[in-house]
Amino acid sequence: MGIAFTAIDFETANGHRGSPCAVGLVKVRDGRVVEETSWLMRPPPGVDHFEPANIAIHGITAADVARAEKTAHALERIERFVDGDLMVAHNAAFDLGVFTEAARACGVTVAPTRSACTVRLARRTYRLPSYSLPFVAAEAGVPLLQHHDPLEDARACAGIMIDVARRHVVEDLATLFARLDLPVTAWGPGSATDPTRPRQLALFDVVDGRFRRHDADDWPSSRDDVWPARGRDAVAVGEGLRLTG
Fold it and tell me: Fewest CB within a 10 Å sphere: which of 49, 63, 90, 167?
């Protein structure tokens, strides 16, 4: 299948990572988009309030999701669509964090998965003043007509991954990751990113689920809108981070 993966993008209702209100998914086979979908969902009970800062970013309100399906059902649909693919996101720590934290908030179990981050890939491929999605999409020649629409963002992410593979002249993603020395990140029960494990290195987990000194130049910078979560600020608290609205 050559360049094969599923790009994913979530929008959240508030500062809790487990509060998805919309998702966009784009499936790629042989370097071409073959299927895409997007839908709204009701965030899990207890984290289902909508904060003004988030609404200002994506425009989705509580009224918009009032008749949408529950997150638990949405997660099942996502798993069926992904069907074991590598999941690719622009700031994968955020989007895959939403996936796993939402499952935890719903009390459901999701299958372990693997992810790759187009922020990190872009930093190894392009020279840009910012590695936020609009800048990277423009460099990759990918249209981004409505930033923070989840399907538009997932399409842009997919296009970036395809362009990165093209520029490095590779025919599969395993070769690309080996060439750039960027291992995929495991997500799910028992992995380094399992939300139920002790959070001793929370700062580094937000970045990539692991810490390696030579990866420091790949961390998102203050100029990028991808760190650590859309529309929020990070405040150091002890050994971890707290997100503020």
Answer: 63
